[in-house]
Amino acid sequence: MYISAILLAAGRSTRMGADKLSLPYKGQPLLHRSLAPLISSALVSEAIVVVNPSFAAPLVRAGCTVVVNHDAHTGMASSLRTGVMAASALADAYLVSLADMPEIGQSLIATLVEAFVRSARKILVPIYEERQGHPVILDSQYRERLLRIDGDVGAREIIRENPEAVERVPVDDSGVVFDVDTPANLADGPVRTKEQRESTQ
User: Fold this and answer.
1) Could you tell me the residue range of the domain that residue 74 belongs to?
2) Tens of pLDDT along 107-166?
3) Contact between 159 and 136 (Cβ < 8 Å)
């Protein structure tokens, strides 16, 4: 199966007050941390990074395609459209991930892709403690619908429109719901599992 991973990295970092993708998270730039599992996964056929026009070129890494969303100011939907348009025509599905979610590792990517391949349903959403997370995977049959989304909602609208097509996969990893929005997030990271939380109480 040809999986096109689309990493959305065109946000304005308004709550951070700086270009957060270049800030260090556990020893490497946040963008590199989020991109690495997509590049290294044997189950991902291509990795596309969608950036805004002010993107810092030195953050580019080998093994991915970088595309500029000149309408990034209009919201996440325009970045998702840009990524889908840049994806290969061979794509069977799109794995949509967010560049400010650095705790999504290669093993989690493998778990989700394998679950999608096994499932008869066409949309996969990871669930952590009843919270919907990322990355989500959508069959390429939704390509035209993805190209019509608008605003700042990403794929949520399509998920909401097609409840019968959604495979919800429970995971014991808070990385699917942890994003970096503030300097404190950079420093602290998430508490990843129930066992870890209990050990700190």
Assistant:
1) 3-199
2) 999 999 999 999 999 999 999 999 999 999 999 999 999 999 988 878 999 999 999 999
3) yes
Domain count, the chain: 1
Helix residue spans in 12-142 (DSSP H)? 30-40, 76-86, 106-118
Whichever domain contains 161, its CATH number is: 3.90.550.10
Could you report the per-residue pLDDT of 79-118, keeping only the tens digit for each? Answer: 999 999 999 999 999 999 999 999 999 999 999 999 999 9
Whole-angstrom distance, CA of residue 137 vs CA of residue 80: 13
Determine contact, residues 10/175, Cβ cutoff 8 Å.
no
Query: C-alpha 67: how far from its chain's center?
Result: 15
Give which of 30, 166, 160, 155 is closest to 104, Cα–Cα: 30
Q: How far is CA 29 from CA 6, 32, 72, 108, in A?
A: 18, 5, 21, 20
Q: Determine if the peptide bond prior to 135 is cis (ω within 30°).
A: yes
Query: d(Cα 4, Cα 180) in Å, to the nearest integer?
Result: 24
Alpha-carbon distances of 197 from 138, 165, 179, 194, rounded to whole Å = 32, 33, 18, 5
Q: What angle do CA 104, 60, 95 make, to 5 degrees?
A: 40
Share of residues in the chain with pLDDT > 70 (%): 85
